[in-house]
Design brief:
120 residues, alpha+beta, Glutaredoxin, 7 helices, 46% helix
């Protein structure tokens, strides 16, 4: 059986990302980490995620990054294209971790039971 090629997207200092790393490693699930801060994120990747999850489900409106934006900027995000452009510019506002296997993607805060249902 081929090994699954999970990719965990996020930023390394995020508590939810750290918990995901610990859980995945504890269950011997291999993954590669994609750091938004150093590697960015492509428009095509965000477009694919938006098609699967909806752009509204990718923006973390509780993030400091989102909250610090001017209300005019926040209110202007009404389409997928606008959301993608903003997420590319401010990657810290993307919910995390985003975990991808092949082209399928999930975004979820860390919860051990949910991770077990999803990855085991």
């Amino acid at each position: 059986m081929a090994e699954k090629n999970y990719v965990v997207y996020g930023i390394p200092n995020c508590d939810s990302v750290k918990k995901a790393f610990t859980w995945l490693e504890g269950h011997k699930i291999a993954y590669r980490f994609h750091n938004y801060k150093t590697e960015g994120i492509t428009k095509s990747k965000l477009d694919n995620w938006c098609k699967q999850l909806g752009w509204e489900n990718l923006i973390n409106k509780n993030s400091t990054t989102w909250r610090d934006l001017d209300d005019t900027v926040k209110n202007a995000v009404t389409t997928k294209a606008e959301a993608i452009a903003l997420m590319q510019e401010h990657t810290s506002m993307i919910k995390r971790p985003v975990i991808e296997l092949d082209d399928k993607v999930v975004v979820m805060r860390f919860n051990a039971d949910t991770y077990a249902e999803t990855f085991l």
